[in-house]
Amino acid sequence: MDKAFLRWLTKLIADGQEHRFYTCRAWLAVRDKVMDMDRHECQIHKARGRYKRADLVHHINHLKDAPELALSIWREEAGGKRQRNLISVCKDCHETECHPERLRKYKPKMQVTRERWD
């Protein structure tokens, strides 16, 4: 990723316009490559011995936290260990496993009141 692209992406993130990144040609090319690598299988389901078709590609290191890895399929951990940064997942796993905070955000809040029979 060149410096101009990183500056553009950083500005998108600062402006809350990340969706523009997910429609750019560079992302779509990397996304297709990851889906092909994973044979369009949800990697979370696969790790559990199940099969479900993947719908999208997830950043392990979130876009906002590591924009420099936005187009990187692999990342290096401490000690030089190579790990995946992008994986194919189904929509359900993306919300429940990858972003559970989104589910808590939209759960209806129930108010419990003491029942009275006066």
Quickly give the structural class. Answer: alpha+beta
Uncertain residue segments: none
Give the number of DSSP strands: 4
Beta percentage is: 5-15%
Profile the largest sheet. Answer: 2 strands, antiparallel
First-residue to last-residue Cα separation: 70 Å
- pLDDT averaged residue by residue: 88
Shape verdict: globular
Number of helices: 5
Q: Level of helix content?
A: 25-40%
- H/E element order: HHHEEEEHH
Adjacency order of strands in the biggest sheet: 1-4
Describe the structure.
A hairpin with a 5-residue loop joins β2 and β3 (82-84). The chain contains five helices and four strands. The chain is an alpha+beta fold and 118 residues long. It has helices at residues 3-14, 25-37, 43-47, 91-98, 100-106, and strands at residues 56-59, 74-76, 82-84, 86-89. The longest helix has 13 residues, at 25-37.
Q: Features of this protein?
A:
single chain; 118 residues; alpha+beta; two-stranded antiparallel sheet; two-stranded antiparallel ribbon; 4 strands
SSE layout:
Blueprint: H1 3-14, H2 25-37, H3 43-47, E1 56-59, E2 74-76, E3 82-84, E4 86-89, H4 91-98, H5 100-106
Antiparallel strand pairs: 1-4, 2-3
Helix pairs in contact: 4-5
Short structural summary:
This protein is α+β, with helices and mostly antiparallel strands and 118 residues long. The chain has helices at residues 3-14, 25-37, 43-47, 91-98, 100-106, and strands at 56-59, 74-76, 82-84, 86-89. Helix content is 38%, strand content 12%.
